[in-house]
Amino acid sequence: MDFQKIKQLMLITLKWLLICCLIGIFSGSASAFFLVALEYVTQIRIHNTWLIWLLPFGGLLIGYLYFISDSRIAKGNNLLLEEYNKPEKKIPLLMAPLVLSGTLVTHLFGGSAGREGTAVQMSGAIADVCSSIFKVSRSKRRTLIILGISAGFASVFGTPLTGAIFALEIVIFSKINFKSSILSFVVAYIAYFTVEFWNVKHTHYSIPTIPEMNFKTLFWVIGVSILFGFAALLFSRSTHFWSKLFSKNIKYPPLRPFVGGAILALTFYFMGNLKFTGLGVPEIVNAFSIQNAPYDFLLKILFTGFTLGAGFKGGEVTPLFFIGATLGSALSVIVPLPIALLAGMGFVAVFSGATHTPIACTVMGMELFGIDCGIYIGIACVFAYFSSGSIGIYHAQIVKGPKYILYQKFRKKRLKFL
Fold first, then answer.
1. For residue range 290-316, what is the model confidence (pLDDT) as tens digits?
2. Residue 201 has what pLDDT?
3. CA of 268: how far to CAs of 53, 126, 364, in Å?
4. 30-73: per-residue pLDDT in tens?
5. Is the pLDDT of residue 418 over 70?
6. Does the pLDDT of residue 179 top 70, yes or no?
7. At what angle do helices 215-249 and 317-331 cross, to 10 degrees?
8. What is the distance between the alpha carbons of residues 151 and 160, in angstroms, rounded to a whole number?
9. Distance between CA atoms of 352 and 259, rounded to whole angstroms?
10. In this structure, are residues 28 and 190 in contact, taking their beta carbons and an 8 Å threshold?
11. What whole-number distance in Å separates Cα of residue 229 and Cα of residue 398?
């Protein structure tokens, strides 16, 4: 290799390392600010429960801001996946402040939503700015989108390995090059350490007791894992159902979250219980030691699907953690496994089923709960993945591979039978 080629290779390497640093630092800083702001508005809501009555007006504000903005922004995470699958137009930078403000308003007034979508969308918009600054070609924008997803996920949950793998696995059946894979890990750790630099803490979970694996234990693990997959399927279907229902019956978009917010506020008031508002992190933590009611996970599915379907902003992943952890906790009545292990398995398995990302979710379980429970986490994520159906929370995600082949064969056999 001559000197010119070595020089060119070094320049390209330095260019992409600089891009990773910029995306990681800015995305990590955005996530750090978001996490602090989210905790702040959550505490305000907890100490001022009357704010729930302002939920419809908050929804009206969110709906109107999105209505007068670029219509593509409302697609959220799906816009990132669409642009990855078919790079055409730049992701609007306006997506970052819009989803940030929309999520904070949603949580301030008590909507049931998550946070990962916000971090990923902010990071995706930040990453795509680099396409102009560094004159990145349309095809190489795919790498920028992977870096944005990786940085956003890693920084908001404090799981760099998971963030890097999730960004790759979510688009695994599209074209991925080796460079994107390496850079995904680099940017994930830069974003993660940026949040650490700002001294923003993440929630910690613990599974103190790990039983010995045997055939009886394996039977129970597989059984509950299939149930986690069914819960993921129900959540995905619920979110899409409410979104279609609101779109079909309320033609003026800003009115959708207004009407949805009014219904939610009245429902929470008559229930006399606000534990299904916001992220629900305290309920997730409690699920590892306190048995949940068997209907808690169903109510979270209902309220989160309704909130997001109406047009409020946030994410789906933390509610999926809530659903999985509370379902696992409730199953501890009949399943002879430690409650913390069941909650931890559900925590990542429902997420695995809803996003078709069993590898990333297995790694996440080991990052959050320790490597000792890896075999249980892995089995839960794989079986939930296969039993959660072919529709996930991201309609723009390309779903192929073993699950796709299995369901295609099942459909053909069913048609022949009919």
1. 999 999 999 999 999 999 999 999 999
2. 92
3. 10, 36, 32
4. 999 999 999 999 999 999 999 999 999 999 999 999 999 999 99
5. no
6. yes
7. 140
8. 8
9. 32
10. yes
11. 19
CA neighbor of 33 nearest in space, from 119, 91, 146, 114:
119
What is 51-110 written as a DSSP string? GGGGHHHHHHHHHHHHHTS-GGGGGTHHHHHHHHHS--SPPPTTHHHHHHHHHHHHHHTT
Under 8 Å between Cβ of 340 and 288: yes
pLDDT at residue 194, as a whole number = 98
Return the number of other C-beta atoms located less than 10 Å from residue 288's C-beta. 22
Residue 331 in tokens = 């199953």
Which tokens go with 329?
């906790």
Structure confidence by residue, pLDDT tens digits, 221-238:
999 999 999 999 999 999
Region 374-391: what's the mean pLDDT? 95
Residues shown for the chain: 418
Kindly report the average pLDDT of the chain as a whole number.
94
Give residue 407's pLDDT. Answer: 63
Amino acid at 265: A
Residues 362, 292: Cα–Cα separation, whole Å: 24
Is residue 1 predicted with pLDDT exceeding 60?
Answer: no
| Domains 3-197 and 215-405 are alike in CATH topology | yes
**CB neighbour list of residue 230: distance below 8 Å, 6 or more residues apart:** 387, 388
Contact yes or no for 184/146 (Cβ under 8 A):
yes
CATH architecture of residue range(s) 215-405: Orthogonal Bundle (1.10)
| Residue in the structure block whose two tokens are 């129970």 | 220
Encode 298-317: b = buried (16+ Cβ within 10 Å), e = exposed. bbbbbbbbbbbbbbbbbbbb
d(CA 378, CA 251): 44
Pairwise CA distance, residues 42 & 65, whole Å: 22
Structure tokens at 217: 């234990």
Residue type at 300 in one-letter notation: K
Place of tokens 């409020």: 312
- Residue 397 has a pLDDT of 87
Superfamily of domain 3-197: Clc chloride channel (1.10.3080.10)
Task: Enumerate the domain spans of the chain.
Answer: 3-197, 215-405
